[in-house]
Write a structure and sequence with these properties.
This protein is an all-alpha fold. Helices cover about 80% and strands about 0% of the residues. The chain has a domain at about 30-70. The longest helix has 22 residues, at about 30-50. The N and C termini lie far apart (about 55 Å). The model has no long low-confidence stretch (mean pLDDT about 80). Pfam families: DUF2273. This is DUF2273 domain-containing protein.
Length: about 70
């Protein structure tokens, strides 16, 4: 019963857990360090997602930094 309820609301549960995680990081290291951490995690997720879809890493980097990787 409990697992079914949690599974039904998994998005809300993950959102709460992410909020607690980032809240603890904010309390421990401060706002700007937390913001930099979130940017790094987001960038890693973006690049990893592109690689999962079999996109070329040079094409990804060329879109981010045009003309640097030709």
């Amino acid at each position: 019963m409990m697992w079914e309820l949690l599974w039904e609301h998994k998005g809300k549960l993950l959102g709460i857990l992410a909020g607690i995680f980032f809240g603890i990081i904010y309390l421990l290291v401060g706002f700007w360090n937390t913001l930099v951490f979130v940017v790094f995690v987001g960038t890693g997720y973006y690049i990893g997602r592109k690689l999962d879809h079999k996109e070329d890493l040079r094409e990804i980097l060329d879109r981010i930094l045009p003309g640097k990787f030709r």
